[in-house]
Write a structure and sequence with these properties.
single chain; 8 helices
């Protein structure tokens, strides 16, 4: 980790020189310290040496699959990991998210989206919930009393609806796959029962979103799962 506590250090593991150059320019302009590696093994070595605050990891590395590099990282650290993929690697993205990646970007991507995803990802360095109360929009969740209010009025949630809300809060701004959520709430045997999740997502949206058909907080990640966006627009 960088010696200056105000400078966040990012390790980029990608074999494409052009992508690394683009990422370095974008990240350094935003005030980050950047380290680079062009292979999975070099990335793991650099991670051990530098202990960065976050990792940007390409799935298509020349020596090791990105998912294997991720697994090696997860054996050592809960460091936030943003994966990079190309169009058509949906199965690989899901595998990486299931293996512990925090978010993903599909190439090509814009500088603004990259930095927004990274800011959200880096919030994991801080406690996900600073107190027993969590707020988003006009909703207030009292985690100690298991009480939910919207615009000052109590919202009645079933135990499963509340468990789903709590899971999203604890993993705010992170892309969660259908399999991850189903496994966490319903157990391993329910991983294929996506209709369970669709039903409860609709219930949460009806109760907590202002516009059910245009959800700002409980967003769908097409082909992947869902993301709870705690601060829309950031």
């Amino acid at each position: 980790m960088t010696a200056d506590p105000l400078r966040i250090e990012i390790l980029v593991i990608d074999d494409e020189v052009q992508i690394r150059r683009l990422l370095r320019l974008t990240l350094e302009d935003a005030g980050y310290v950047v380290r680079e590696a062009e292979t999975g093994l070099a990335g793991l070595s650099e991670f051990e040496r530098a202990a960065p605050d976050a990792v940007i990891l390409d799935l298509g590395l020349p020596d090791l699959p990105g998912v294997k590099v991720l697994a090696r990282l997860r054996e050592k650290s809960p460091v936030p990991v943003l994966i990079l993929s190309v169009f058509g690697q949906e199965g690989s993205k899901i595998a990486a998210l299931d293996a512990g990646a925090d978010d993903y970007l599909t190439k090509p991507f814009g500088d603004g989206e990259l930095l927004a995803r990274l800011r959200a990802l880096l919030r994991r360095i801080k406690p996900a919930v600073a107190s027993n109360t969590f707020r988003f929009g006009t909703v207030v969740v009292d985690l100690e009393r298991r009480r939910v209010m919207k615009q000052g009025q109590a919202v009645k949630l079933t135990s499963m609806e509340y468990a789903l809300l709590q899971l999203f809060i604890m993993h705010r701004d992170k892309a969660l796959t259908h399999r991850q959520v189903l496994r966490e709430l319903w157990g391993p045997k329910a991983e294929a029962q996506t209709h369970y999740l669709r039903t409860y997502m609709m219930r949460l949206r009806r109760k907590l979103e202002d516009e059910v058909d245009d959800p700002q907080y409980f967003q769908t990640e097409s082909g992947i799962g869902y993301r709870f966006v705690s601060e829309p627009g950031n």
